[in-house]
Specification:
Length: 301
């Protein structure tokens, strides 16, 4: 069980169905923050690559900044903060109280970096955040949103005039296609009526980049950069990898034991057929998925 949890933590960036908010909270609310820090190497690598790509845009930012979805704060402290001007100050925010408590204890920097609890989808944005920030960043978090439009509206409201936003979040993942197919199976359909709640905001988009760009422009952003990029994840132990996914699918708990076992077998077979490949005579899972990246500005004449 512990081994499966460790695998889950390592792939948390990719599979939104694993990280889907449960009653308004991300799965991070139920994970030990220190264990999360020890197993988020993939997130750190992706974050560092993005920060390096936009380093010229970030290095001169010297005002007040926010990291939305900061988790335990290690990426905020060690990757985001050093990329800014030395006079910049940062507030890291997250919906998880346990993550924020850990971040303030382990990753705060006196007079420069602190952490506060905030649900980015709130429709009652606290006054102390409105028009307060020169830059807002969010890495690997916004795909958790049930209402991503509200999240971007709040980011826009929190930015000062001419403030900027840099976001990276997952867009599409093939496993959702498999779940959609299985939801049509008469054996599973009665238990999967809410399957759409497991999908990302842009999972069913014909053109995720264009739709994100249109959404941001409708809110008021001026787009500086917007791209859809393919990336990948390698799981060298397919059985444990898929078991970790299955363990977080809530609806299978409604199934009788024999139906549940059949579902697990079918999902593993379909997913492996789609993504398995050989490497040094071993079977591995090579999972391709897409991420959206946007750099935008709140320009007010």
């Amino acid at each position: 069980m512990l081994q499966m949890l460790l695998i889950f933590l390592k792939i948390n960036l990719i599979f939104y169905l694993i990280l889907r908010p449960v009653n308004g909270n991300s799965i991070k609310s139920f994970v030990n923050p220190s264990m999360y820090v020890e197993n988020n190497k993939l997130q750190k690598e992706k974050a560092l690559a993005l920060i390096n790509e936009f380093s010229e845009n970030l290095k001169n930012i010297s005002g007040k900044c926010m990291d939305v979805g900061c988790g335990p704060g290690d990426v905020t402290k060690n990757i985001f903060l050093p990329a800014l001007n030395s006079n910049a100050v940062v507030i890291g925010t997250d919906i998880s109280e346990s993550m924020i408590e850990y971040a303030n204890r382990m990753s705060s920097v006196k007079n420069r970096l602190k952490y506060e609890v905030l649900n980015i989808e709130t429709k009652q944005l606290p006054n102390q955040y409105i028009s307060e920030f020169d830059h807002i960043i969010s890495l690997h978090s916004l795909h958790w949103c049930n209402d991503i439009r509200q999240a971007f509206k709040n980011i826009y409201r929190m930015l000062r005039s001419n403030g900027t936003m840099l976001v990276l979040f997952a867009a599409t993942e093939d496993i959702f296609k498999i779940l959609d197919i299985m939801a049509q199976d008469k054996d599973y359909a009665p238990y999967m009526s809410d399957i759409k709640k497991y999908t990302w905001p842009f999972q069913d988009s014909v053109n995720p980049r264009s739709e994100l760009k249109e959404l941001l422009e409708e809110i008021g952003f001026t787009i500086i950069h917007c791209s859809l990029r393919e990336t990948h994840f390698v799981a060298d132990n397919p059985d444990q990898f898929l078991s970790s996914i299955i363990s977080f699918l809530e609806f299978i708990n409604k199934m009788p034991w024999d139906r549940k076992e059949k579902f697990k077998k079918d999902l593993k077979q379909k997913y492996s057929e789609m993504n398995s490949c050989k490497q040094n005579n071993d079977t591995i899972i090579l999972d391709l998925y897409n991420v959206l990246i946007a750099f935008a500005q709140k320009r007010i004449p």
